[in-house]
Every structure is written in structure tokens, then in C-alpha cells.
Amino acid sequence: MTFRATILTLYPEMFPGPLGASLSGKALEAGTWEHDVRNIREHGQGAHRAVDDTPAGGGPGMVLRADVLAAAIDAAAPADDPRPRLMMSPRGRPLTQARVRALSAGEGALIVCGRFEGVDERVIAARGLEEVSIGDYVLSGGELAAMVLLDACVRLLPGVMGHEHSGTEESFEAGLLEYPHYTRPQLFEGEPIPEVLMSGHHGKIAEWRRAQAERITRERRPDLVDDATKTASKQNEE
Ligand code: ADE
Description:
Layout: E1 3-9, H1 22-30, E2 33-39, E3 52-53, E4 63-64, H2 66-76, E5 85-94, H3 97-104, E6 108-113, E7 118-119, H4 121-126, E8 130-133, H5 143-154, E9 187-188, E10 191-192, H6 202-220, H7 222-237
Parallel strand pairs: 1-2, 1-6, 4-7, 5-6, 5-8
Antiparallel strand pairs: 3-4, 9-10
Helix pairs in contact: 3-5, 6-7
Adenine binds next to strand 5.
């Protein structure tokens, strides 16, 4: 099954951008996923194909018109299209690896890239758009955020990553950040590879990696440790 991404943007020339290189680029060439990029301006109004207007109630900037975006969405995806409809926005729920995994297991997504000060609220509700944020900072538009989301999904599609495995041991999959990695040379600027990793004792290595992952997560992302503990104690209650 091909993962289909339909992207609605005012800057179609930005795509595939970095998604045309490396793993995602090869997967695009191989047909593992496809992207259909559409210019919202094709549905703009009048000779100038206007897509935005001044905010009701006043204030700075411009707002993407509901009628224009609705027409662009309707032309890109029929009402019975089963794919989730996302809109990249700093106001959205934060993207997580769990959401990425769920998306990559589906048929794809319709992704609206926001611009201007905002998008008329009525079209968000009327077309069932789910707002998604890639972090607590503001980009100049949703295009880079859409690329981040797609990159995270595409690498999980069957056949895209070299080792089946490399998807399940990495950061966030166990609710923890990843353990540290080492390779040759055995001694680098006086620092040796931790001895346990050279022991060949698989049980001890796994135990050491788990402890390191917990330490790093506690230091850098105490919020993740809290979540993991909550999930574990909930499972114990059941
Ligand atoms: N558009 C602008 N900022 C964004 C963010 N942080 N996440 C998703 N889309 C955005």
C-alpha cells in the first residue's frame, strides 16, 4: 500500500525539498509513498486570486479565508477520503512518536500548511482539520512542519529503513531517550569504550543500556519519566 500525502500550501515549490533526498527521496522514487502538492491559490478569488483578508475584530496580519481553503480541500480530497486531515499550526497538539507511528500505519494524510496570522476558525471545524504542532516555537509557515511530520512517518514505512529493528530501539519507542552508542576506535582521545559493551555478555549489555537510557531521560526529559511511570503504574492497577 502506498502512503499518500496530499499537501495544501501557498508555496508548492518548497516540496519535496529535503524529502527528495536520502531515505525519503529513495522511498519516493520507489513509490513507497507519493506526494500530491496543491497550491491553495488556485482557489483564490478574483483576478488576483486573493486567499486572505483582514481579521474580523481588527488586529495585525491577514487571515486565510474559509471559503478559499474549503474549496482547496474539497478539490483535493473527497468527503469519504479515509485519510486524516491535519493542519500544521503552533496551536496544535504536539506531535509524538506514537502519533507518527499511527499515521505511518495508515493510508497517508491530507496536510494543510498554515500561513499568515491564522486560518478562519470556521473551516477548521467544517472540514474536520486536526491541528498539529511540531514544538513550542513559531515557524513562518506550516511547510517545514509538514516536512518534519512526513519525514518521521516515511522512515517507518515498510522497507524504508535498513534494519527492521532500528525503528523499535530508538528514542521514544520505550518512552525513553536512546542509550549512548560507541564504535571503534577502542580508545578516543584517552576515552575508552565502556567495558561492559566489550564483554559480549548480552544480558549485562541490555541492563546497562536500559540504565543509561533512564539516566539520560531523567536528566534531559523528566516529563517523559513521569509519563512512563504513570503508564506503568496504571498497567499494574489493571
Ligand atoms: N507553523 C508555525 N509554527 C509551527 C509549529 N511549531 N508547528 C507546526 N506548524 C507550525
